Amino acid sequence: MKYINANKVLPEKLIVEIQKYVQGETLYIPKPETEYHKWGTSSGGRRLLDHRNAAIRNSFISGNSIQQLAKEYYLSTETIKKIVYSHKK
């Protein structure tokens, strides 16, 4: 995260108003909620995990055991259980 000097981007009246509450501190101003993206949507990481989890569910339905899947995907048996017993399709 890079920091920007408020004097360079905010009107003086707004700076004076903010200084009533905070002075000489770092202040984080979040994006509006409409600008948020779910984790992994920009990088494609979420899509990769969804594909992996679907493959794990299909393998489980095809008869592979939780222990086999844990070894194959390098995950704990508890994580495999969460994936195969979730209702997400």
Automatic annotation (TrEMBL):
NCBIfam families: CD3324_fam. This is CD3324 family protein. It comes from Neobacillus pocheonensis. The lineage of its organism: Bacteria, Bacillati, Bacillota, Bacilli, Bacillales.
